Amino acid sequence: MPTTTAQPNPATAATKWLSTKAYGAQSATTPIAPLTIERRTPRPDDVQIDILYCGVCHSDLHTARSEWPGTLYPCVPGHEIVGRVTAIGTDVKKFKVGDLAAVGCLVDSCYKCDNCKEGLEQYCSNGMVGTYNGPDKYSGGHTFGGYSKQIVVREEFVLTISGKLPLEGIAPLLCAGITTYSPLRHWKVGKGQKVGILGLGGLGHMGVKLAVSMDAEVTMLSHTPSKEKDAKKLGAHHFVLTSDEEQMKKIAGSFDFILDTVSADHDYSFYLGLLRTSGVMVCVGVPPTPATVHAINLILGRKSLAGSLIGGIPETQEMLDYCAKNNIVSEVEVINIKDINEAYERMLKGDVRYRFVIDMATL
Ligand code: NAP
Ligand code: ZN
Ligand code: ZN
User: Which of 36, 174, 198, 263 has the most neighbouring CB atoms within 10 Å?
Assistant: First the structure.
């Protein structure tokens, strides 16, 4: 495969740059292939991390293939990053060289707006900077993610992790973990509540583990019959095949809360019918096509349809600490980076048990 180079903006040529091996897409229709990117050398508040593992999120695929608008190329995906600190800037307090460290979906925000002040950096009014495909104020270009040997990130956006649990299992917590933890906490899911997790993939399997750990009664809602055994192993109390009309009829109007993690286009109204009066369905999956929902599906039963984006930095740290305390990690299939395109194809078929994680030693 050809090797290409993504250069920093000449406007910031005074900054020193580190040539870094990476994998990325050159266009929506080309495979993920080797390339070289430039990382900035650490500024006073930066942490430089040698990446050990990076999870593969369905958002990586949506972005690399321009299934959502606005992808900038070359696109180096990856926002479930764990690694070891190799250098720190002079002002860094939380980390020293050799420490374990993690980076999730955000690498910068304004820290001035009300959302940032509340620790909701993901909703920064001035625009958060995603770990990839975000506006990089230092290079003048766009950010490159974790399918790479190293990353340099402002200290506030670097998380601490415990060395107690397997690092490859921790990596997916940085997106799949926090994206499911945050809505479960925000809507106060807990004992006595019936929760449906829709879609058993990367996010879905973390949703099951976390909701079970919070003492909810959890039903896995899946369109794949072969996942029933796994759903039970993950702790789900019930499994319902969404294509089975009889089973679906039995659970109509029964859930307090549904977490919708489905990545493909689907009918929201169909699943709103599973909520009880005043129930809430939260979309975290982002299918490529906008959906249509008739108001009557919300009005009858005072139902809510909501959304949630990853989580802020304080809550991401809280989730990592919670998972360390409760021995919660992701179920992973560790892959060689050369197999990333095949992993994308398997992810599209729903054939992930339950998160691919790239071993960066293979890069
Ligand atoms: P994933 O591992 O591919 O899982 C998606 C699951 O959706 C599949 O395993 C499958 O579960 C179900 N599914 C797929 N195609 C379907 C279809 N045609 N009909 C019904 N169900 C289908 O993906 P992921 O990494 O968990 O990500 C899920 C979605 O969340 C993506 O759209 C991603 O971009 C988005 N996301 C959002 C946020 C956020 O902050 N809101 C963060 C991360 C990711 P079953 O086989 O069990 O049906
Ligand atoms: Zn993600
Ligand atoms: Zn802000």
Answer: 174
